[in-house]
Design goal:
By secondary structure, the chain is mainly alpha-helical. 85% of the residues lie in helices and 0% in strands. The chain is built from 17 helices and no strands. The chain is globular. It starts with 11 loop residues before the first helix and ends with a helix.
């Protein structure tokens, strides 16, 4: 089928790379415009505005994680049916996924309206009014975020990761252009930065929807496939809730850490905001690869190709090892220069703390990629419980760090919190993945013996 990709055939290396590259480039552009938000705000509005924007990042990340988790959870069911070659079921799952996504968007928007300001207060945000001015406009545009994420997830489920990249690039470039116009020329302040983000997401969402209905006609649900199907709905909700919880639990942990960071003062908030933006850009290679691995595993699980799943995971690990070595080298050679460039600040304490964070955090990427790849892959082969358990472990670690280690060790408690969590999480998901694969192989042998 045109505009789709069957990942159950051919080289696992080429399948993962060809699928991941558009996602990686998409994440690059997404982080590019996130960095441009920070750079434009910092250079034009100053450190105080940068602090206001940075203080909302964890809370905004929670809502984004929920939308991303739900839509990608839905897409795993679509990928499973696509791998099995059952196109009518693919269409039926797409129909119900779109309806559920709209419901998720409406619920999250309603919840955010009533909870954002109280949560900013709870997080001890230095300037609640300024931070709320920025984040409120973005949260009112969540419908566009959900729409883009859902259509992108559908396209990725059937092996097409290039089209979402193109729409994201267009949205990213539009965001940067509007940032300059709204902040530099129209003097709209942090509200302008938020508005630019919403309009850019609207552009991406409209383009992705138009593309799907124009280019993927074989996947457009028929009238009969739009009718309510309780079994399909329950399966989609199970996957969506599982992955939504996985991502949101991680974000709740980040909110807890943000509370601790906010208590350390404006310099530390600005430093942490800058370091996290750079850190997230360094991480961007792993999360697209984990998405590719989940789709790869789900399609091959649907096709009954268990040995191919193992080959795909080992290939993903090899790619990630090379990337980790490159990121560590770049950090130690150019870390301080990156901090100065992104923050636009001459505050030496901000620069020192940001650079320290990067140099202590990034060497532990070897454990991070094991965690995220196996966690998503387990979702792809039907394990809905362990990924949530691993995420709860991460949440617990961040709560402990916020309540105990930050008061004792200050910002060092923040810096070393995630590396410790990655190590523990990697061990948990690693053992579970090995056990799961052993069971799948045993069931495969038992089935073959009975034939």
């Amino acid at each position: 089928m045109k505009h789709t990709k069957d990942m159950t055939k051919g080289s696992p290396l080429s399948a993962l790379i060809l699928f991941s590259l558009p996602l990686i480039l998409g994440n690059l552009f997404q982080h590019f415009y996130n960095l441009m938000d920070i750079a434009i705000v910092g250079n034009n509005l100053g450190d105080y505005a940068l602090t206001a924007v940075g203080a909302t990042s964890a809370l905004y990340g929670l809502y984004i994680s929920l939308t991303f988790g739900f839509t990608n959870g839905f897409s795993l069911t679509i990928a499973h049916q696509f791998g099995a070659g059952n196109i009518p079921n693919v269409r039926k799952n797409i129909a119900h996924s779109l309806k559920l996504s709209l419901l998720v968007a409406l619920i999250l928007t309603a919840v955010s309206i009533f909870t954002t300001r109280p949560l900013l207060t709870l997080l001890q945000t230095p300037d609640i009014d300024l931070s709320y001015r920025y984040i409120s406009v973005i949260l009112f545009g969540l419908i566009f975020t959900v729409t883009y994420n859902m259509f992108s997830a559908i396209l990725r489920a059937v092996g097409n990761s290039l089209a979402p990249l193109i729409f994201l690039i267009i949205g990213s470039l539009s965001n940067v252009a509007m940032d300059f116009i709204f902040i530099k020329f129209l003097n709209m302040g942090v509200f302008g930065a938020g508005l630019a983000t919403v309009l850019a997401q609207a552009i991406s969402s409209v383009l992705s929807a138009v593309y799907f209905f124009q280019k993927c006609k074989g996947l457009i649900p028929t009238k009969e496939e739009l009718y309510y199907d309780g079994k399909v709905i329950r399966r989609l909700i199970a996957n969506g809730v599982s992955m939504g919880l996985m991502f949101s639990i991680v974000s709740i942990g980040s909110i807890t850490l943000q509370y601790a960071v906010n208590s350390l003062g404006p310099d530390t908030i600005a430093a942490h905001t800058t370091a996290r933006k750079i850190d997230e850009m360094m991480m961007l290679f792993f999360f697209p690869l984990s998405t590719a691995s989940a789709t790869f595993c789900s399609q091959n699980y649907g096709a009954g190709k268990i040995d191919r799943i193992k080959k795909g995971i080992l290939t993903a690990f090899a790619i990630s090892t090379v990337v980790s070595c490159i990121m560590i080298t770049v950090t130690y050679l150019f870390g301080e220069n990156l901090v100065r460039m992104v923050s636009g600040s001459s505050n030496e304490e901000l620069i020192r703390l940001s650079t320290l964070y990067l140099k202590c955090n990034i060497p532990f990427f070897f454990f991070l990629f094991i965690l995220v790849i196996l966690r998503s892959s387990l979702q792809g082969i039907g394990n809905k419980i362990l990924p949530i358990t691993a995420s709860l472990t991460e949440l617990g670690g961040k709560v402990i760090a916020s309540l105990i280690f930050v008061p004792l060790f200050g910002y060092l408690g923040i810096i070393f919190c995630e590396p410790v969590i990655w190590i523990v999480g990697a061990i948990i998901v690693g053992i579970t993945f090995l056990v799961t694969m052993h069971k799948l192989n045993r069931n495969k042998v038992s089935t073959a013996d009975s034939l």
